[in-house]
Amino acid sequence: MPRTDNDSWDITESVGATALGVAAARAAETESENPIINDPFARVFVDAAGPGMWTVMANPALAAQLADSEPDARARMQVMVDFMAVRTVFFDEFFLNAADAGVRQVVILAAGLDSRAWRLPWPAGTTVYELDQPKVLEFKSTTMQQRGARPAASLVSIPVDLRQDWPKALQQKGFDPTKPTAWSAEGLLRYLPASAQDVLFERIHALSAQGSWVAANAPGKDFLNPERVARQREQMNRLRTAAARMLKTEVPNLEELWYPEERTDVADWLTDHGWDASVTTLEEMLARYRRGVSDENLIPPTVLVSAHRSSG
């Protein structure tokens, strides 16, 4: 179902289902032979949600079955796992570096099934604010409570749509804009209209004291190339059709959830507003961790941006 201005979702619906797909990829990486991440909660979320497309990603037997019926499936699922693995490493390192620099206030925008509040070694006195749709945060909170998991930092959950006045909701929950903050926008920007992306960073900037940090992954150059888009759409449609047939259920079309629009370059915007920004491509991250890709067309054009506000 295409997006609308005021749409909302449960964890198994629309954008919520993408969070389960990401968790499934983290579970697959964690349980692989040579993992570069360790997320013990990813499998917990996937199992708690029940069957769906995410089940295939996290279940080797189902993944093999899908690959038998759709030859491209194995390569595409492995790319998804590798992508999420190196992206997870990038944001893990970002938060740990910010903590080492003395930041004790963390904001995870569109937190989804991010488990960093539970699994990262946060220094004493750290507060982690998680913002997302109410039903998504409710699912995560309930699942973690049933697991008996305790956050490693002071956790504040803020059920709010990021298209609404989330800065007000954040400050009402104790956020202090005079203190340095580490912000993350992981797996978020493509699900926002281009204009909403600009507003998001304007709000982050307005709430960021000197010494703050921010990280995001963003569409890279050529992400709107018509030939690339057509190839990816054709590959995804074949995979989605095969998965729906195997699971005997509807599989959402992820492309209907994205906003394929020209966007402001995140690193340029941050630099223009006084942040010291750096950019790493997805290809560079994959190469750093020796993750090869058999078909370059499978890699979504992606950049990973991190920045530090030392002045301004």
TrEMBL record:
Keywords: Methyltransferase, S-adenosyl-L-methionine, Transferase. GO terms for molecular function: methyltransferase activity. InterPro entries: Ppm1/Ppm2/Tcmp, SAM-dependent_MTases_sf, SAM_mthyl_Trfase_ML2640-like. The keyword S-adenosyl-L-methionine applies. Its EC number is 2.1.1.-. The keyword rRNA processing does not apply. GO terms for biological process: methylation. Belongs to the UPF0677 family. Exhibits S-adenosyl-L-methionine-dependent methyltransferase activity. This is S-adenosyl-L-methionine-dependent methyltransferase. It comes from Mycobacterium botniense. The lineage of its organism: Bacteria, Bacillati, Actinomycetota, Actinomycetes, Mycobacteriales.
